[in-house]
Amino acid sequence: MKDLPVPRQPARKKPFYRDISFQVFVGIVLGVAVGHWWPDAGKASQPLGDAFIRLIQMVVGPIIFCSVVSGIANAGDMKKVGRVAIKALIYFEVITSFALLIGLVTINLLQPGAGMNIDVSSLDAGAADSYISQAKHFESTSIFLLNLIPKTMVSGFASGDILQILFVSVLFGFGLAAAGPRAKPMLTVLESFSQGVYWIIGLAMKVSPIAAYGAIAFTVSKFGVGSLVALGKLVGEFYLTCLLFFVLVLWPVARMAGFSLLKLMRYIRSELLLVIGTSSSESVFPQLLTKLEQLGCQRSVVGLVLPGGYAFNHDGTCLYFAAVSVFLAQATNTALGWEHQLALLLVLLITSKGGAGVAGSAIAVLAATLGATNTIPVSSIALVLGVHRLLSSAFVFVNITGNAVATVVVARWEKALDTNRLRMELDTGYIEPETALATH
Known about the structure:
71% helix
């Protein structure tokens, strides 16, 4: 297998109404309208969004497995694999630390929760119980590390645990690399298998506008447009924080790496619009993998960095942790000094790794950590449940963009990036293939 996908053939640009990003945008607008004016119909639309997410979740595990195994086995040089992994992990930790710092400074300056004077005893103490039980395996470092190892080779695929899938994929990839030429037949099988999976993804993407409509219609019908007003300060503060992160961190990083952040976001705009509707990063993983290879990043690098980013690089989620945890302290008049804030967020930075692949993991990790640290009342999480979907759409948007930037940057560091192709693709913009089968 070649490191780079076959260069695309010149294609006639489709009419705007056939562009998937335009269709997803229309779906979101229709979802807001239906959810607001016909709430019963909006609530009934929930299965449309859930079905699409499940369809994508069904193939994310196999795609990660094929990508990581192919990336390691085809890299040949195990030193290169280790070098890429170390560079990626260092990049992830540095950028997420900047995210925590920006989130902390912004929430403390704007103080959206100050003056709310919420009486903790008046809150529903059981509102966060489901999230705490969901995140039981985040409670200690030893349990987290033990949970990396699945009970069987297929356990991670069955549960959708990205960290376990990564663990199995890395070991299997090293095993095939050690086998040398004898592993060629298995790599051929994996390539053929991945082509079949990508056909399913191409088919699923045709209905993604309907999925975006269903997810947004349900959210608006359940919480109402007024939910933006009720906790508008927190929502506004968080959106501003996300914007600052783009301007102060991602834009300079992209510029130093020699590409335009705005052009990259335009290139993956359909994926960014889709995560706004679904609030699920998994829903765009396969398409993002293909597009990053199309941009000129070597498959061996993309296959390692992007799945690793999904597990370890949570820029937007760290912004969310900073905003919500300090907001809850402000709203409940809980004394939380800078030293306590830093300690709490450092714990969250570590425990967030265990939430990869778990739906709703951000609020689950937050609930479990607040309960374990015994600082901010866990029941106060009930305050943000109504707007969590609005917040999650934003932080998943940041996560996806951050991981795309990380992949291109690490590929450039590793001299595994075709810069001419990158420039050409970003200038031209992504053109969808005529068939449902994605080029890979």
